[in-house]
From TrEMBL:
The chain holds residues 316 to 590 of 590 of the full protein. This is Diguanylate cyclase/phosphodiesterase. Residues 24-275 form the EAL domain. It comes from Leptonema illini DSM 21528.
Amino acid sequence: DAKRDAHGTIRWFDSEQDRLARERRSTLGRVRSALENGDLSIYYQPQIDLRSNDIRGFEALLRWNREDGVILPGAFLPEIENNDLICDIGRYVLRGAVEQSALWRRLGLASHVSVNIAGRHLQHPEFIDDLKAVIESVPGAHVSDLEIEILETTAINDFERTRDIILRCRALGIRVALDDFGTGYSSLAYLSQLPVQTVKIDRLFVNRMINEERRKAVVQAIINIAGVFGHDVIAEGVETYEQRAALAEMGCHAIQGFYIATPMPEDQVPAWIPG
Ligand code: C2E
Ligand code: MG
Ligand code: MG
Ligand code: MG
């Protein structure tokens, strides 16, 4: 027992106390408390299919509700992505999004949900079991309603393993999307070997596409390559009508962005849905 060590001091105990106190004050500790206290919530952003103009589905996006406002994931996820807390958060978002999807399905609404998965969680030995557990325990959940989004950098980090996990997801009937495409290595070799169904073009390209011909050419190239591999292509960060029109013209399958809607709490979704 470290509290009564050979020297009879309580130093170890003190420093353990200090460590816990420090952790509680740190982002990691505060996010852990937020998860336990129900202060983490999920917003949903619609994706529109440009071929049918229907809702393709919704991306689940994490939010931290604090007294000083709603905090975006960029302000706290980077600090916890190397801790197992990111896996607990991943399970929480997966369950919440799948429950929401089952509810929307019961209401006859679009029920596809996309969930962002951190590299650490994806490569965790229990990840596939986490997916199965969620699908099996949520009443009315349809496996085909679920898509997971992974970053290219995650895939490249442990390529063979990621490839194997993607294949196991697909064997379960879950779709897999490559997120933020264009910002990482974006290698053709990788893209051709990753068994994903969807490629999401990073908003950096969409953003500057209208004024920069070279960016537009990159977007067109990604759409063409994705077409060769049979992938669905979603453009992220569409903020204007011009961008939407240009993407439709280029043959992009779906779009997501503030031009359509900003991410919203789930209770606002039914009212938002057109018609
Ligand atoms: P992402 O997966 O690429 O998600 C798209 C981000 O772009 C979201 O930011 C969304 O709010 C924002 N966005 C959507 N449309 C527009 C637009 O038209 N203009 C602009 N400027 N931004 C737009 P958000 O919600 O802050 O999330 C940031 C990132 O945090 C996500 O990027 C994703 O990588 C990560 N993230 C979010 N939720 C989760 C989660 O539950 N788990 C994990 N592991 N990561 C998450
Ligand atoms: Mg995403
Ligand atoms: Mg993205
Ligand atoms: Mg991103």
